Each structure stands twice: as C-alpha cells, then as structure tokens.
Amino acid sequence: MATDAQRRSLVVVGASAGGVEALTKLVRTLPAGFPAALVVVLHVPTWGRSVLPGILDRAAKLDARAAADGDAITPGCIYVAPPDKHLLVELGALLLRRGPRENGHRPAIDPLFLTAADAYGPEVIGVVLSGTLDDGAAGLAAIKSHGGLAVVQDPVDALYEGMPNSALERVTADHVVPIAELGMLLVDLVGEPVPQRASVNNNDDPPPAGAPPELDANPSMQAGDAVGLSCPECGGALWYLGETGSERYRCRIGHAYSERSLIETHGRALEVALWTALRALEERAGLMRRMARRARDGGHPRTAESFVGQAVELDEHAATIREHIVPRALAGELEAAGGE
Question: At what angle are helices 109-120 and 137-145 packed, to 10 degrees?
C-alpha cells in the first residue's frame, strides 16, 4: 500500500465577497516550499485587470501569478484566475476558456472544482471561502465524490457566510475552520498519503448512453431531465444535471446554474421584466392622453372621453405593479436567496 501512496498535490480555492481578505490571510500562513499548488478563483468583474495576483504575491512566501493558458501546475505556486476567463484543470496543466457564464460569473468556481475533481480525484483539496450565494457548492460535492477533501471556512468567521453555508448544506465537509487555522490545516493535509487513483478520466470516452437527442448539439452536455425553465441569459431550455450533491441546471449553450444562483439570476430578469411592463403601461397611458387632447381639439368629445378612460385604466394597472407586485416579487426573490 505504501508503494501506491501519493500525496495531495492540488488545492483549489473559491471565494467571492470578502474573499480578498480571506485569501490574503490564508497565503500569509503558508510556508515557503508548500508542497502543493494553489489554484484560486475569486469572483471579479469581467473587465479590467485583476490586482489579486499582486496582492497575494506581496503577502505570500510563495510565488503568486495570474494563470495563463497551458501553465504547468507546479507545487509551491499560486495561480489566480484572470477576469472574463474560466480557469480549468487538466492533469498537470491549467486551461483558460471564455465559455458561457456559470452561476452568473466568469470566472466561476464550479468549473475549476469540477475539472479538478475529474483530473486529480483524491489528490485534490477543495476550499470554499467567504462569499454570497452558492457558487462552488456543486464543485465541492464533485471533489468529495471523487475521493478528494472538502474544506470550508467557518461561516461565523467569514465576512459573507452565504457560500460557506451553501457548501455545508450540500456537502459533508471534512474540515470547517476559521481562516487563521486554514493554512496550517492545509500543510497537514497535503502531507497525508492518499491511495493511487485507479484511472484518470479519458476525454475521448463516449458520452453517457441514453442522452436525450435534444442535447446532441453540444457534446459536453450530459444526460438529464428538462425542467421546464428557460435560461435567464439566452432563453434556451434548462436541463437538470448532476449526481447527488452536485446538481446543476444547464442549457445547450453551456450557461450553468446552481439552484440559488438560478433564483438570483431569474430574480434580476423578473425585475427587468416588471419595470419594462410598468414603463410600457405608463407610456401607453401618456399616448392615450395625447390622443384624447387631439380628439377634443378636433371636436370629437366622445372619442376623447374614451381615450381618457383607457388612460385611467392603464394608470391603475401601472400603480398596481409599482405599489404591490414589484415590492412583493423582489422581496420574494431576496427571501428565496437567503437575503444575501
């Protein structure tokens, strides 16, 4: 058994709001010569240039850099996802892809975790830090199901507890620790031997048998069930995918959502739709009043009265949306998302 033993060689870390502070504290506690690579996704805007690699490089005893496509995964290095690119893992290397947004983000945490689980199996440690909503929860479940370790920042210790809480709801974490203890925990964990992987995923394997024909347009799509929902970004049908703990919703284009992220994204689309309806009603009422004035000036009082009546009715509909429907709808979305 000892001859088959390997060490954990990859730590993948996901963070969002409050993540810069958490990551900075984490890397400060990692010793020089840390025998694993850290690959980091922090939710950042898709434009501009991320300053996180510089912040971490100044704070850490390790080399921190922005990840580049094709980078070899080297122990003792910290790789940070750049803006507007998903950071993926294959055996021994990193990939950057400008694929569809997942959970409303690019870069997103789930693609990193899912690909790391596939490529490294029990040799990977997944870490979820401070953030809102639930990006990373499905990926952490995949890491766990492939034999890797799941580590979560203690929600009480996190600046934003949404992501840690979501991860703990979906995954039985191996360790839940405050950020001050995480560095030394990782040092201990990467030093532990793990059984050698029986095999490595082969990207040339055929797709699962029985995949619905509607999914054939995208070979990366897996078998699943249509859920009767449309993708908030492209309007395509969403399909339910995943194994226990890593369930997600995905459209043919490739936009993917966890449940809470889907609620949040649908909530933004709902808000836009409601304001659009309100604007259309008020504009139509204004047009009716203009037509009423012209009818009155032209000597058609009955027609003018009809237009005024329609304008009043439209005003009432608009007031109902503004005063009752919009506040209730938005309050419902916030409640469903946990107020995050």
Answer: 10
Domain residue ranges in the chain: 7-194, 214-257, 260-336
Residue 69 among the catalytic residues:
no
The catalytic residue among 110, 118, 135, 157 is 135
Q: Kindly report the pTM of this predicted structure.
A: 0.76
Report the alpha-carbon distance of residue 131 to residue 104 in Å, rounded. 14
Any idea what DSSP says for residue 107? S
**What homologous superfamily is domain 7-194 in, according to CATH?**
Methylesterase CheB, C-terminal domain (3.40.50.180)
Residue 16 is among the residues annotated as catalytic for this protein: yes
- State the pLDDT at residue 202: 45
Distance between CA atoms of 173 and 186, rounded to whole angstroms?
A: 14
Distance CA 190, CA 186 (A): 6
d(CA 134, CA 265): 12
Residue 220 has pLDDT above 80, yes or no: no
Least confident of 35-49, 94-108, 158-172, 257-271: 257-271
Over residues 54-81, the pLDDT tens digits come to 999 999 999 999 999 999 999 999 999 9
